[in-house]
Amino acid sequence: MIRCSWVPTEDQMMQPYHDEEWGTPCHDRCRLFEILSLEIMQAGLSWSTVLAKRPAFREAFHDFEVTKVAQMQEQLPLLMTNAALIRNQRKLQAVITNAKIIAAGEQHGQNFAEFVWSVVGQHPLNHHCQTANDVPKTIPKAVEFSQKLKQVGFQFVGPVTIYSFFQAAGLVNDHESSCFRYQQLQTAR
User: Name one GO molecular function term (predicted).
Assistant: First the structure.
């Protein structure tokens, strides 16, 4: 089975993540919030570090239920003592702040999933990458969306983080064209 070249051979976490999750279009608001939050946690770290800590993040952040996370401000000091998490106060604060903004938007009728997908016209972009070197670090739509998020108060949402979010949540198909997932996602369109 041919995978994207960035997937380590025999990696017990990365292979299933690549094969079953990465690049699969996601329209679930809590799952999108989770993906965004984990991409924020990944900034400056390896994805395998974040993936290994994902169960702890899910437990600490109530499976990324937006309304519950939005009410966690007073729990920030406790989160900072949890060795199972990435204990970066700015990143943890960003998750809580971003949840508050999403929850406030939803109270005014804004659907977070529709808001996210509106940036790509509700359909995944396909970059037809031949190799990992063809995959961009960011794209204009990620820069635009990053600016939109920052304007409403989101934290830790630079263009590179947002582009990684687009890739993970399936807003773009950046699987290499030789990868079996590339063909699966093309067929599913």
Answer: DNA-3-methyladenine glycosylase activity
Q: Is 47 a catalytic residue?
A: yes
30 is in an annotated binding site: no
Indicate the helix (H) or strand (E) that contains 96. Answer: helix 89-107
**Chain centroid, CA 80 distance in Å:** 22
**How many other CB atoms are there within 10 angstroms of residue 182's CB atom?**
21
Q: Global pTM?
A: 0.95
Which of 22, 34, 39, 117 is catalytic? The answer is 39
The residue annotated as part of the active site, out of 47, 117, 163, 182, is: 47
Span 15-45, pLDDT tens digits: 999 999 999 999 999 999 999 999 999 999 9
Tallying the residues shown for the chain, one arrives at: 189
The C-alpha atoms of residue 50 and residue 40 are separated, in whole angstroms, by 10
List, in order of start, the domains of the chain with CATH numbers.
Answer: 26-188 (1.10.340.30)
pLDDT 10s digits, 121-163: 999 999 889 988 999 999 999 999 999 999 999 999 999 999 9
